[in-house]
Amino acid sequence: MALAVEKRAVAVLLVLYAFLEVSIAAVYKVGDSAGWTIIGNIDYKKWATTKTFQVGDIILFEYSPQFHNVMQVTHPEYQACNASAPITTHKTGNDSITITNHGHHYFLCGFPGHCQAGQKVDINVLHVAVSAPTPSALPSVPAAATPAPSPSDAAPLYAFKRLLANLGWTLAVFVCGFA
């Protein structure tokens, strides 16, 4: 009887751990240090393709609101740089947008000529299974000397935490099933 209670307690703790780990989201600053701008010829398409976006991640647009804005648009509007009927418009200069579903999320600057100059981004959230990093991908530097990852480099860390959370769920189900 005591062993069954112990197994259930471990299972509950694993489920709680998994829940807490899954709730962690990555924050991606669009354009990294340059931000959301037309200065500097930022390639937002290239920027986005180097990221692995997940549901729950936060997309941060930082810009000067007197010169830029952020409009979420449909795919045809994105392709045509048409800002006449956006889904949403953001104007604060420090806009955080939480990704709530898989698929493409299209954003552009609605100021005249900015989208045509390349100020648009396609955030594509894929349905992907999280895999563990290979041992060669793990840092060989002691943890104390390793700097914290920047928001844009944080995706692998969060992917690994999500893997641990999924393993926790699996283990909890396994333990509960045999308790």
Plain-language structure description:
This protein is 32% helix and 18% strand. It starts with a helix and ends with a helix. The chain contains four helices and seven strands, in the order αβαββαββββα. The protein has a four-stranded antiparallel sheet. Mean pLDDT is 77; it is low at 131-155. The chain folds into two domains: 1-26 and 154-179; 27-132, Cupredoxins -  blue copper proteins (Immunoglobulin-like, Sandwich), CATH 2.60.40. Helix 1 runs antiparallel to helix 4 (155-178).
Radius of gyration, in angstroms, nearest whole number: 21 Å
Beta percentage is 15-25%
Helix content: 25-40%
Shape: elongated
The CATH topology annotation of the largest domain reads as: Immunoglobulin-like
Structural class determined from secondary elements: alpha+beta
Secondary structure tally: strands? 7
Q: Could you name the ranges where pLDDT drops below 50 across 5 or more consecutive residues?
A: 131-155
What pattern of helices and strands is seen along the backbone?
A: HEHEEHEEEEH
Mean pLDDT: 77
How many helical elements?
4
